[in-house]
Amino acid sequence: MLAIAHGLPFNDVADVSLGCAQGIGRGTVRQLCQAGARLVIADLNDAKGQDVVESLEKFGQEQRHVTYMHVDVSSYDSVLALFKSALDLHGRVDMAIHCAGITEIGGWFAPGTDIASVTTPPTTKVLEVNLFGSLYFTHVAVAAMGHNRAAQSSDNKSITLVSSIAGFKESPGLFTYSASKHGIVGLMRSSRAYLHSTRNVRINVICPWATDTQMIGGVRDIWTQNSLPMNDPDDVARIILQCAVDATIHGKAVYVADGKGFDIEEGLDRSEPDWLGEKQARDLAKGQAALGTVSDSDTSLACIISNGPSVQGSAWTGNKGSQ
């Protein structure tokens, strides 16, 4: 979904979000619209994307100026065209929300008897959509947010990406999916200090546990049988909007379970001396602080770039804890 928004504290705010047709993205679009947002929404599935627009109009939201666009997030040119259109329509981008993603495609570690069974490379589609799509989206969003910035009344710019519990916990069998979702968390951690200090752009990532969408179909029965908590897409959408609009929330990976948000980064930072060792934690913090000054154009060994210290944000709606 890609959205350009004005309203909520979205007054005179433009928001871009990707992956609108179903699940979490659809819920995010609906809440943006209900909050008074002006939207440009995008998806690869045009039929479902148009259905989102019609559903908003059905509930009297047509005055919100909802515009739908076809976008393939794995295509850089397609993502670029989306942001160009957003700027043409509204002259600015204040928030970018990326909800698009696909689940595991089999074939990476299927049983093989010998080297002859692996002569054809397995698909990289999951990485192209989930990880490269997030990289393309973030890359273009940052540039779009700098467009005509000096003339804008609001300076609250934010990027919100959607990862998964597979972005920080073991997920057996989800080989490329887990790699892609870990990569999204890594993108946030590696860019948060740089984007905030050089572009004044906030970036956060949402890591939902099981959510009642089409992607959980294969394990839905297991969840029900074991009475495990499941997110409603609207609960995840609410936390996405909180991170997008709250100027105090930056550099966070937010685990969402049973409709509540938990700050992973705070828990990791606080407990690091326990699981890494006090001396190792002190030495690592010193090295991270030193590398935190490395610029985007530096090509030296120091480009193992530190994520640097994150800006501590206030709690969002729901519980704040550690995982």
From TrEMBL:
GO terms for molecular function: oxidoreductase activity, acting on the CH-OH group of donors, NAD or NADP as acceptor. Gene3D superfamilies: NAD(P)-binding Rossmann-like Domain. The keyword Metal-binding does not apply. Keywords: Oxidoreductase. GO terms for cellular component: cytoplasm. Transmembrane segments: none annotated. Pfam families: adh_short (PF00106). Signal peptide: none annotated. It comes from the Eukaryota. Belongs to the short-chain dehydrogenases/reductases (SDR) family. This is 3-hydroxyacyl-CoA dehydrogenase type-2. It comes from Tolypocladium paradoxum.
